[in-house]
């Protein structure tokens, strides 16, 4: 198994974007923050973009809150001009920025007031993933940062993250919405009249499913957004292309649990299949024992023998604890082997389990040191 050289990745000037991806609950946000802190303290001007609504990143960095604007983190021991900034994606505000960039203020206000847009920009499936990449694109275009680190949404499927930009563009440019655009171009004729005349049974079915008011909101929204369809398609392609540039590195994060490793393996396979720049796997919360040569079976046998001879109960209990820990270590090794067997050429770095949750800069430094330690 090749070890993932995180230090080289963070300090290489050619690395401009690191995307941390994986399932939820594996320490992805903490990993992204630790990478950002390590890079800043190595002298790079770094920003961490999180999608985590739990605000763990803000708390660990000593910030009262995070929003759509980068905030500088204090207490960073940065040298040679290094700085650390952090921000949390505001999905709706980012969508609003896209609208403003592609239409005039009057049309933008019409779009913002539309109920369908309000729902879509805050809760539509795939919007969060698309807007995360939209914000990444904005940050990269500004060219203010040596390194941008993205903590991606905890998607239920690895496909969600990679497919979201194109899926949203396809939806906005899709045949159904194009058909719904027709009523907005009829010079005042009602939605129901046009739908009945143009689509007959199809129109009545759609109206029954969606309801007349929602259908009207959708039609009005699509009409207002008509000039932006090409823009969404182009931006989706640019975002996807940005992910494939040599300056981007994907870091898959997992914990030694079956579901997390299975998701990581699936994600790695997808990245490799699409020629995405996969740097490697961070395996978080890995347990270890100080006496690896003492097996669980031997520890239990020793505990039983000592207990039989009346030895100290403390010694007996220590041996049993060691046996439990040894079994856990072996279990985690078997689980991790599922990834390394499937992807023998993908570098891996293991991060030891912390005794408690990381909640401050010192904790992030410990994680960063574990990520970059040399063997």
Automatic annotation (TrEMBL):
It comes from the Bacteria. Residues 15-288 form the ArsA/GET3 Anion-transporting ATPase-like domain. Signal peptide: none annotated. GO terms for molecular function: ATP binding; ATP hydrolysis activity. This is ArsA family ATPase. It comes from Cryptosporangium phraense.
């Amino acid at each position: 198994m090749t070890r993932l050289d995180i230090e080289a990745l963070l300090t290489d000037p050619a690395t401009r974007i690191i995307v941390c991806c994986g399932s939820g609950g594996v320490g992805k946000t903490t990993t992204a923050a630790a990478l950002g802190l390590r890079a800043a303290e190595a002298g790079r001007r770094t920003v961490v973009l999180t999608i985590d609504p739990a605000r763990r990143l803000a708390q660990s960095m000593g910030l009262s809150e995070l929003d759509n604007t980068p905030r500088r983190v204090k207490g960073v021991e940065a040298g040679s001009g290094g700085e650390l900034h952090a921000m949390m994606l505001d999905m709706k505000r980012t969508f609003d920025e896209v609208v403003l960039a592609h239409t005039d203020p009057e049309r933008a206000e019409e779009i913002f007031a539309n109920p369908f847009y309000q729902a879509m920009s805050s809760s539509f499936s795939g919007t969060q993933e698309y807007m995360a990449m939209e914000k990444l694109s904005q940050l990269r275009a500004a060219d203010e940062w040596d390194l941008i680190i993205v903590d991606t949404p905890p998607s239920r499927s690895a496909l969600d993250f990679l497919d979201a930009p194109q899926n949203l563009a396809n939806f906005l440019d899709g045949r159904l919405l194009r058909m719904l655009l027709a009523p907005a171009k009829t010079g005042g004729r009602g939605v129901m009249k046009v739908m009945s005349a143009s689509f007959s049974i199809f129109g009545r079915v759609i109206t029954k499913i969606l309801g007349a008011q929602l259908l009207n909101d959708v039609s009005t929204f699509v009409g207002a957004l008509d000039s932006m369809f090409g823009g969404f398609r182009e931006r989706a392609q640019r975002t996807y292309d940005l992910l494939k540039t040599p300056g981007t590195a994907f870091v898959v994060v997992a914990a030694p649990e079956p579901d997390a490793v299975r998701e990581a393996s699936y994600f790695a396979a997808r990245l490799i299949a699409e020629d995405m720049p996969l740097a490697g796997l961070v395996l978080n919360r890995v347990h270890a024992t100080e006496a690896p040569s003492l097996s669980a079976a031997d520890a239990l046998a020793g505990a039983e023998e000592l207990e039989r001879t009346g030895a100290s109960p403390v010694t007996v209990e220590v041996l049993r604890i060691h046996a439990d820990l040894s079994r856990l270590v072996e279990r985690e090794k078997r689980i991790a082997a599922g990834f390394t067997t499937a992807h023998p050429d993908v570098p891996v770095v293991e991060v030891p389990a912390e005794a408690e949750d990381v909640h401050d800069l010192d904790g992030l430094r410990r994680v960063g040191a574990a990520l970059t330690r040399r063997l």
